[in-house]
Amino acid sequence: MDYFQYKKNELFVENVSLTEIAKKFKTPLYIYSKATLVRHINAIKSVFKNTKTTICFAYKSNSNKHLLTILKEKGLGADCVSLGELLLARKVGVNPRKIVFNGNGKTDEEIKLAIKMNIKLINVDSIEELLNVSRIAKSLGRNPEIAFRLNPEIKVSTHPHIATGLKNSKFGIPLKHALDAYNLAKKLKTVRISGIHFHIGSQITEISPFVEALKKILLFSRKLKKQKILLKYVNIGGGLGVRYKEEVPVTLKEYAKKTIPYLKKIAPETILEPGRVLIANTGILLAKVILVKRTSKNFIVVDAGMNDLLRPSMYDAYHEILPVRIFPERKRENFDIVGPICESGDVLAKKRKLQTIYSGELLAIKGAGAYGYAMSSNYNLRPKPAEVLVDGEKFYEIRPRQRIEEIL
Ligand SMILES: *Cc1c(COP(=O)(O)O)cnc(C)c1O
Question: Ligand 1, from 202, 233, 259, 270: best to mutate by most atoms within 8 Å of Cβ?
């Protein structure tokens, strides 16, 4: 459910027309709906409200400071994967006791900062990394809380680039080595063993991979208990899918209902790291048609490219594309919607049936709130777009367009 709707053949975000926003802030432009974001935050909070749960928003999916402030004010924490994201969480004012730190290649500098910030949990990705964390903790005279990221080896039906729980994944410790990792940590005494973590992938629309993983993790946690290693936290990661096209993702209610019984058995407190499910359908990318080119195919060339939204090129991702103004009398044709980047992979959408369209008109690319701006680049030396937040009748810039001088 989102607040991007047509009113009299004109696409609106909440109570503002996209044409009006484009007039003021130009294109390409990321536009977010505050009501949609708040609705999603409330939904996930409400299904876990009777449990002890910390929801750490995955900063990598969207790092707009203004949006992160809304998430913080609604009580959410931060899942960080770099020095930059740790510093950003601090800048946003997130309580360090709600920050977790992930990644398979944390540098000494990053580990040092995480320990000094006294964050809730460092998710250690390997036995090798444990030794680094241990060495740094000792040198700082601190005793940080850690979890191990385990790889439960679960197949998920998502794009291979975003499946992270497969047997040969670079992430996590295989279950068969996990007991060694915990025992080593116990022996070292430089860290406090607090949790268990897994994250099996992204855009997962079914419940079964989560339950399969939890079953394996529960069995393993019983082995820990036998060795008197008691866990405070079970961190189930993120990965919940959203509807981009015709997917029917598991509802939050069902997700909570099916996972909570396992979570409770594994540890007293749950940590969630949702990204996409909270933010994807909160944002769109607004683009302007530069020209319509007709060869053996019909191409709509727009002013947004793969540097603004990488997902279609990188993951073959589907994003719904809507004309901002509908002209019912126009005929409908098949189009490929492409960007201006000198790269034949710069295709935003293939073979879409759309009304005939002309240069200067606007298209909205939906589901662009997660891994949209966050993955944008200056490829082809193009400045990054601006970001705008709509709140009822109001709208304002929440990150300015990069100026060309900044990147020359
Ligand atoms: C990317 C990531 C997330 C968030 O994933 P979503 O699919 O956006 O929910 C959470 N945890 C870890 C460890 C990640 O790498």
Answer: 202
Q: Which residue's structure tokens are 């601006």?
A: 386
Q: Which of 342, 360, 393, 403 is catalytic?
A: 342
**Amino acid 158: pLDDT:** 72
- Tens digits of residue pLDDT in 110-153: 999 999 999 999 999 999 999 999 999 999 999 999 999 999 99
Of 102, 30, 113, the C-alpha closest to 59 is 102
Cα–ligand 1 centroid distance for 292 (angstroms): 38
Average pLDDT across the chain, whole number: 97
* CATH code, 4-32+280-407: 2.40.37.10
Q: At residue 1, does pLDDT exceed 90? A: no
Alpha carbon of 265 to ligand 1 centroid (Å): 23
Which residues make beta-bridge pairs with 148?
124, 196
Residue 375's pLDDT is what? 98
Asked whether residue 35 carries a pLDDT value surpassing 90, the answer given is yes
252's tokens: 């939050």
DSSP-derived secondary structure for 211-257:
HHHHHHHHHHHHHHHHTT---SEEE----B---SSS--PPPHHHHHH
Beta bridge partners of 197: 149, 235
Q: What is the dihedral of CA 365, 245, 376, 172, to 10 degrees?
A: 160
Residues of the chain with CATH 2.40.37.10: 4-32+280-407
Residue among 79, 197, 270 whose CB has most ligand 1 atoms within 8 A, to mutate: 79
What count of other Cβ atoms lies within 10 Å of the Cβ of residue 208?
13
Q: Measured in angstroms, how far is the CA atom of residue 247 from the centroid of ligand 1? A: 19
Homologous superfamily (CATH) for 34-276: Alanine racemase (3.20.20.10)
Our answer to whether residue 56 is catalytic in this structure is: no
Output the pLDDT for position 202: 94
CATH 3.20.20.10, the chain: domain bounds: 34-276
The residues lining ligand 1, judged by C-beta closer than 6 Å to any ligand atom, are 58, 60-61, 79, 102, 199, 202, 237-240, 273-277, 370
Q: Give 125: exposed, middle or buried? Use CB within 10 Å, 0-12, 13-18, 19+.
A: buried
Determine the Cα angle at 203 with ends 202 and 205, to 5°: 125
State in Å: Cα 334 to ligand 1 middle. Answer: 35
